[in-house]
Specification:
Elements: H1 5-27, H2 39-44, H3 48-67, H4 73-81, H5 83-94, H6 101-120, E1 121-122, H7 130-151, H8 156-181, H9 187-192, H10 194-213, H11 219-241, E2 245-246, H12 251-285
Helix pairs in contact: 1-3, 1-4, 1-5, 4-11, 4-12, 5-12, 6-12, 7-8, 7-10, 8-10, 8-11, 11-12
Amino acid sequence: MVSSGWCFLAAMIVAYGVANLLQSVAAARTTVHHTFDPGLLLRLAGHRTYLVGLACQVGGFVLAFLARRDLPLFLVQASVAAGLGVTAILGVLVLKWRLPTAEIVLLALLFAGVTGLVLSAQPAQSRPLGPTGLVALAAALAVIAVVGFFAVRLHGAPGSVALGSLAGLAFSAAAVAARPLAAVTSVEEFVRDPLLYLLVAHSLVGQLLLGLAMQRGSTTAAVAAMDAAGAVPAAIVGLLLLNDRIWPGREWLAALGFLATLASVIGLTRYAEPQHHHEVARERVRGILPAGASVHPHPRR
């Protein structure tokens, strides 16, 4: 019997791809923040585009949660990053981005990488995380928040990389919490499980850090840092502690697929940023954006 996780995984990739595109447009239209201010999320919420993108991200989050019930974290997390491929395709179809030959090659590499992960991943439910894991997730939340408080003072590419990496770590920790939590069947047990609240806390901190990272430096730096920091730790923890499985004899395929997916996503960010900013500039010329809106050296995910 085919696991429903595969359907959730495919829908998740599309949802995150749409969310990436819409949230980046909204972030480019918001004043740059240089403090660790949760009010940024409220200001972004004032943009209809951001709200639609956030709805897509929430949908992707739920789909990812459901996919993690049966599928290993190395597959789900790499597929979250693969949403950038959907973003690039939508940019071409909706915003009329030009698709260079190199990007076509990267999209093909992305497809090959995800295919390799799909073929190597063996569905299985997670093991419980245990008290030590709960303490580790709580400590990670505190460390990420404290480091983020200081990292927000960085500007340009260093700030983008630092905040993007921290956002990736927060989302990675949320994924680790979600894997065993998704196996809970009782509503009462689900609500009482500390993993639920660690998942929510890490997700909120990650969302705030992501909003800050989208506003400074380059899209390339922010997305590459976030995707790498978000995929690798969760994959390692899943394989070591959470019963994530690879079909026997296909370990090489999983490794190649994981590396190919990350490499292609990092490469794709080199094209997404200038095209996106060019589109924002055209909107200002047409009068869609107010004169004071930032076209960017500073925004986006």
